[in-house]
Amino acid sequence: MNKKLCLGIGLLLSSVSQSYAADTADLAKQLSNPVAAMVSVPFQFNYDEKIGANENIERYQLNIQPVIPISLNEDWNLISRTVLPVLYQTYGDNSKYDDWGTGDIVQSLFLSPVKSGPGGIIWGVGPAMLLPTASEKTLGADQWGLGPTAVALKQKNGWTFGALANHIWAVEHKDNTEGINSTFFQPFVSYTYPSSLTLALNSEITYDWNSEDATVPINVTATKIVNLNGQLISVGGGVRYWADDTTGSAKEWGGRLIASFIFPK
């Protein structure tokens, strides 16, 4: 084969490879942005143990988390983020049956500007809603909840850092139960390499204002975008450590697996 032709083909393939790497790295950065204008469907599988006062409960939880952006006009987007948990719990006790089913949905809507603000700050605000969709009483709060949610972050040179928060109050609950009054706070930082490999560190802090107790899991994960028969998927996993816990929460170590299906425009 002609040497010039071989060289041209080589340069073309190299250019395509570099372009693909750049595209996937950009998509990985968008996945790190909770209010990115990109459709994605993350499946997040979590394993935790030593739950409850007797530390004999194990929980397997799959969070289905579709993200759907809606363009309102040339200046504003509405980002829908849904968290639907599917749980399976074992009790280490032959006298009690295992529980499995859906948990309560948390639905958030963020009004977010298309362009970042001063200093490159990306932000969004809106309502967060708790929907009593649990299939078993042990898997949900059995009440409706509503409150505000907000996110703010900055992305630069591969880095993403920011925080997401919400607070939910009960708006309807049974007379013999205490209404939810809970704050969720998620600080996060990640770095995305040109190969689309993303290393992330975050916490998912929950504070219960009724009991004045907090749970503080620390999560460390690594993910990378792969192409599976034309479908882009960010896959990976990591570990978590419960830096602060309660009687009813998980304790010590847990694990996480992630598969996020990406649907770029």
Order of helices and strands: HEEEEEEEEEEEEEEE
Biggest β-sheet description? 15 strands, antiparallel
Q: How many angstroms separate the termini? A: 39 Å
Helix/strand-derived category reads: mainly beta
**Average predicted confidence as pLDDT:** 90
List unreliable stretches of 5+ residues. Answer: 4-20
Question: What fraction, in percent, of the residue positions are helical?
Answer: 10-25%
Number of helices: 1
Keywords for this entry:
single chain; about 260 residues; mainly beta; 15-stranded antiparallel sheet; 1 helix; about 10% helix; about 60% strand; globular
Would you give an account of this structure?
By secondary structure, the protein is mainly beta. Helices cover 11% and strands 59% of the residues. It has 1 helix and 15 strands. The longest helix is centred in the first third of the chain and has 29 residues, at 3-31. The chain is globular, with a radius of gyration of 21 Å.
